[in-house]
Specification:
Number of domains: 1
Largest sheet: none
Strand content: under 5%
Order of helices and strands: HHH
Number of helices: 3
Number of strands: 0
């Protein structure tokens, strides 16, 4: 279930903050996520559904990809 979505601080922010265009830093989105009580379930949702775009759970797409690789490596070892 996605009950956590209604508690996200992102609901109070401009959605464009979480989907920065190329070359634009995601600092503002990550700062909001850092204070959010549902950061972990948000990140896990993005990881589970392989969401490609935006900042989710405080991580950019590239950061989520790196985390996924790290998790896969841990399973193999």
């Amino acid at each position: 279930m996605n009950d956590w979505k209604s508690d996200g601080l992102c609901r109070e922010a401009d959605p464009d903050v979480f989907f920065p265009s190329d070359g634009v830093n995601a600092f503002e989105a990550k700062a909001i996520c850092a204070r959010c009580s549902v950061q972990e379930p948000c990140l896990e949702y993005a990881m589970k559904h392989d969401i490609e775009f935006g900042v989710w759970g405080g991580l950019s797409r590239r950061q989520r990809e790196a985390l996924a690789r790290k998790r896969r490596l841990r399973v193999v070892l």
